[in-house]
Amino acid sequence: MSLISGWKGWRQFKKLPWDWRNIVVYSESGQDWHQFSGLIENLNETLDRKICYVTSDPQDPGLQRQHENFRSIFIPEGLFLTIFFQVNQSDLFVLTMMDLQNLQLKRSTYPVHYVYLFHSMGSTHMVDNENSFDHYETLFCAGPHQVAEIRRREEIKGLAAKQLFDYGHPRLEEVIAHGKSYRAKKNAGDAPTVLIAPTWGVDSIFNTCGKELISVLLDADYHVVMRPHYQSNRQTPEVIADVRQAFEGRERFEYIGQMGETDSIMRSDVLVSDWSAMALEYSMGLEKPVLFIDVPRRIRNPNWQELGIEPVETTIREQVGEIVSPGSLQDAPAAIERLISHPERFQEKMKELRESMVFRLGHSIPDGAEEIARLADERLTARRQRDNA
Q: Residues 129, 300: contact at Cβ < 8 Å?
């Protein structure tokens, strides 16, 4: 069935006239729809641009969108997706997929301009592979730290300079808006709610010290929400099940396994995390503090220190919270009490921090859509010149 679906999708794309291939958006998963939907809405409506949306997820919300300037195509992972990437003819190809060219999905053999949208505010050189962003012409950067990191890598590796657009982070803008509209439903005397939402991997919180941490927090009379990363449930489901089962039925323990659920984030008073980029959105978006459990760094680039730049995941920690060692988890309740003791002061600090760390707060999507349209026009002109040469 996958082969048949892939063949049908590839045939659909091949039959599209060029005006539907001026801007092509590719989504690995329906989880990426929130990265694209605002841009697509602006391009379709405000700028009257046609968009071809290709996804590998049959549940992608983009497949349900109806608009005269929008067409969606389903090409699942496999042979025909590989073919689609290698020989697709389009002007501008927009995606949030890292490691283009490095893994099974390659750049087209035709002259296609690739635009990468950063889907987090994290740094580019420690958590991700060393060459994850080398094979794109344009990068839409969330903040000045990403620009500095990319330019430094280009400098020390002798790479051609990419076009770096000061884009910002629409997800942070959404979080800020949700935070402002959310009305807490707490009663006087209710226990503070602690949300534990770490990254995934063998060294993440639930894989290393999850049981001990939850036990300490429950014993301190906090309401504790366990919210594992969806990759943890994929890669180490037995670990998550073991931690969950150890506390099911305990008063004030809650498990959240649904991706995209936001209520637990909104009603929590403090986040407990490790190296997850979610800590940046939580602290600067909701203006609430983070307690970091100092598990080993999540490193996919063993050469990250070559750049001589400390990743933002490290530098931000003491600005948005406190750090506790896995060997000193008994100190977590006292740290949490300090973090939530002066909320107004913390809120003002976060407002100042995000203004310096994130581009175009409040207007990233309309500005980003205009830049995509400009790049698409530029590539259209270049293609016509090639055709007439």
A: yes
CA-closest candidate to residue 62, choices 96, 87, 85, 89:
96
Least confident among 105-114, 259-268, 271-280: 259-268
- As a whole number, the mean pLDDT across the chain is 95
Distance, CA of 138 to CA of 116 (rounded, Å) = 6
Given a cut of 70, is residue 1 above it in pLDDT?
A: no
- Please say whether the beta carbons of 82 and 105 come within 8 A: yes
**Interacting residues of 86 by C-beta distance below 8 A, sequence separation 6+:** 106, 108, 109
pLDDT at residue number 182: 87
CA dihedral 100, 102, 104, 108 (to 10 degrees): 50
Complete DSSP assignment for 221-235: T-EEEE---HHHHHH
**Interacting residues of 369 by C-beta distance below 8 A, sequence separation 6+:** 38, 39, 42, 43, 46, 47
Domain 174-357 has CATH 3.40.50.2000: yes
Q: In this structure, which amino acid lies at residue 7? A: W
Distance CA 370, CA 125 (A): 28
Phi and psi torsions of 38, nearest 5°: -65, -45
CATH number for region 2-169+361-388: 3.40.50.11720
